[in-house]
Each structure stands twice: as structure tokens, then as C-alpha cells.
């Protein structure tokens, strides 16, 4: 049985070119980038080269990129760093109720420390309004953190509009762009964000590496202590092989971003059209107008998500109930609860399909037919 992987929003297979680059570094460039001898200089060159590629990918400057262990650390670094640095100017933070847990749990920690957080609620498409941001803004607001595109339903937020709103306010603006990076063109100057988080494994890079963009002049306190790596902002010997792998993955997605957007939108249409042709009862969760191209979250009435996922897995289809970070949890998706309410059937019958480099059009069409057959049994077709 051929297996079909439709869970790229959780993680993606590593691109073969990325693997090759990493092996080259692991076998031939073992130096510490802080060392002044030739081995160290070689590692430093690879580090600088990679930082340049990644900075250019979002319109940032070389010194504005801080390598981290992934999106979670980048989110934590941004939020906790701003909170500590700005506490004399206020303790109010604005966010949304549909953020990734890397953000939500960090904010909960800050609430325990005396900070006040306003959680904006989305509409039924998963989108927050700029008016709600404006209404929540106070003189003592020090940070606004809103994800670019949601990891469960794919809805894209009005990031540029929020950035413009905050231009003459003291609050720093952070966006978790982990799910959007590599699939949507991002320019930090255009978006007017101060901090932006990214993880490599969502774009066919290695796990355990990411970056935080930090605008020049931003005053953020570090929470790690050690050497003077990453311009004294994030100590620890750099993971050169993974950083080079990340850089290679970035080069690939930058070259193919327009092509992949169209391809995944086509996959999404094929999937939806197939379900309609098969007379399956379903609803799309999230916004098709303001959505990431690769994420398709669907509610199937008269089904149960756990049974659906088990049946799909037995049929060779890998999908998800939402965030991989809550896999195995009996708690319903906080994103769907925020969108539809705790009593909605959608929080118990929704499946996320997400497309990526492992997929072909034939696979997607076949998977949609398999899904239709399985869901049809539940719905009595």
C-alpha cells in the first residue's frame, strides 16, 4: 500500500539537496565558528553565508537574524525578551486566542508574573479584525503578538495593517510566521514587524533550527547566558550543519514560491471538488479568501475525528486533527473552539490536510477519493 503524507503543516520531509549539504558540512567543516584558526574561519564563513541568505529572504539586514533551536524558542525569546525589557513602560500585551501554544503558554506564564494579556477573538473564518486591535491598544501596551497564518485552519491575519497601526506606538510587534514562511512572500519592512519567528522543518529543512528576526534598535533581554555568539544575543556554539541545511531549504523555497502557491491552491481545489462530486457533507474551516495555500481544514458532519484519523491511517493517508503539538490530547482544538464555540460539532469532526513537497496531483486526487469513501461510510452514503 502506497502511503500518502498530507500533514506538511506538522512537519515536512527534508529535501534531498538539504540532506546533501548537511552531510558535506558534517563530514568536512567541524570547526567552531568562534575559533580564529582556519577550521573556525571556515565554519564562520558558512554561518555568515547562511545568515545572509536568510536575511535577504525577508528583506532584513544581516545582523537582524538570530538563529534559534526552532519556532518555539524564537517565540519565547521574542515575547519574554520584550516583556522583561519593557516592563517599566507597561505590562499590557495584545494577542489572539488562536495562537500556537508556543505563544499562548508563554503569555500564560507572563500573566502569572503580573502582566495583563488581551486575547482577541476571531470571527468564524479564524480572522481577527483590525478594529479590535485598535480598540484594545492602550498607553501601557508594550507588545502585540499575532501569528501570520494559523497552523490549524490556515487563516492569514491582517499583519500589514497591524504593523501600520503600531507605527507611532511604543508597543513592539511580533508575528509567528512559522506556518507562512516559504509559502508566502514576507518583507519585514513592508509588514512593519519588529520581530518574526520561523522554523526550518516546515520548509523541508532540518528539525531543531529556526530564527528570530529582530529589528535593529529593538531592546530585548536575553534569557540565556554563556558566550558571545549571535552578536551576544543567543549564546551557545552554533549548529552549523543545520544552519547550512536551513539556508539551502530557504534557497529552494525562494526559487519555487510562486509555483508552489499555485500548485497547492490547485491541490486544495481538487480535494474540495472531489468531495463535492462524491456528494460528501462537509464544511471548510478557515478562510479560502485569506488562507495559506497548503492548509485545508475540513469539518465532516456525523463523524468522529479520532475514528476518521485511524481509518485514514489504515488506508495509508496521514492527516491530522490540527496542531501536532497537541497530538494525543483529548482537549478539543483551541482554534476551532475560538471560531465556533465549545458546543460546536466542528471541534469533534474536523480534519486538517496539508500539502507539501511529498505530494503529486495524482496523490491528492486519490487521497480525496479515499477520504470520500471513508467519510461516506460514517455519513451513511
Automatic annotation (TrEMBL):
Gene3D superfamilies: 1.10.260.50, Aspartate Aminotransferase, domain 1, Type I PLP-dependent aspartate aminotransferase-like (Major domain). Its cofactor is pyridoxal 5'-phosphate. Signal peptide: none annotated. One of its GO terms (molecular function) is iron-sulfur cluster binding. It is an enzyme of class 2 (transferase). This is cysteine desulfurase. The keyword Metal-binding applies. InterPro entries: Aminotrans_V_dom (IPR000192), Aminotrans_V_PyrdxlP_BS (IPR020578), Cysteine_dSase (IPR016454), PyrdxlP-dep_Trfase (IPR015424), PyrdxlP-dep_Trfase_major (IPR015421), PyrdxlP-dep_Trfase_small (IPR015422). It catalyses: (sulfur carrier)-H + L-cysteine = (sulfur carrier)-SH + L-alanine. Belongs to the class-V pyridoxal-phosphate-dependent aminotransferase family. NifS/IscS subfamily.
